[in-house]
TrEMBL record:
Name of the featured protein: Formate hydrogenlyase subunit 4
Keywords: Lyase, Membrane, Transmembrane, Transmembrane helix
A Gene Ontology cellular-component term: plasma membrane
Places the protein is found: Membrane
Phylogenetic classification of the source organism: Bacteria, Pseudomonadati, Candidatus Omnitrophota, Candidatus Velamenicoccus
Organism: Velamenicoccus archaeovorus
Amino acid sequence: MKIPLLLLQAGIAVLAAPLVSGFVRRVKNALRMRQGAALVQPYRNIAKYMRKEEVVSETASWIFRWTPSVVLGSTLAALMFVPVFSFSLSAAGMGDVLSLFFLFSLGRFFLALAGLDAGSAFGGMGSSREMFIASFVEPAAVLAVAVVAAHSSSSAAEPLVRSMGMSFSGMIAAASLFMVVLAETSRIPVDNQETHLELTMIHEAMLLEYSGPSLAMLETAAHAKQLIWFSLLGAILWPWPIGSSSGLSAVACAAFFVLKIILCAIVVGLTEIGLAKMRLFRVTDFLGLAFLFSVLALVVSGLGY
């Protein structure tokens, strides 16, 4: 494994991740016929947070202080398992795609603890809602990936993506995974990134007590996590070959990857415009449908379709 190139690829992905969030916002503003914020606004927000003074609650313990590092570190580790430009530039040999879910769960666990540790009522509310939704998200995501893994007889990233074609079961699994992506990236109809209304916040409620560089780290981790989910969804929907073994140049592989991310961002933007924020207990119906899609995809895959 080429460690310097692996770190370089991960660094480029992290630096580009806020741009994806800005592009989704631009798509939504264009559909609303609004000018909106600039494409690079997420970078400006992170830079602003880095210059701010950090304020820590008196009731906070070491959990609150170390959570941003754990969340960002687990997200960066998950990014290592996702093939971006080349399979040879990933840590797929150290674990399979299911490792992503364990790393995301680690960050979610510490973030939920931090929401409770600060002693804020809103933080505790956000933590309980986050874990409530996660109990529905994770089974649907694992089962959707299992459907794709059944085509390659392996859950490793490289054979999983390369063996996946435009099968009927794959399309159903992709629909389930898309609904999971909306929930994991705090998108409508599950959550709303554009509001700070206390009664509707989920992810943002756990971050209310954070400020300064810690908030910048959490925002960076959220952008990187979104890029990972878009990459996984794009690899299943459009399993174009990447890497040196495909016979394509590095520039062509990078162009294919960027195109898939753009398409995913456009679809997410269109979905957010066309749907409304659901009530919390209606989210169970939405994610339950995603789980049923995963089960249906598994059945269809067993029938050979």
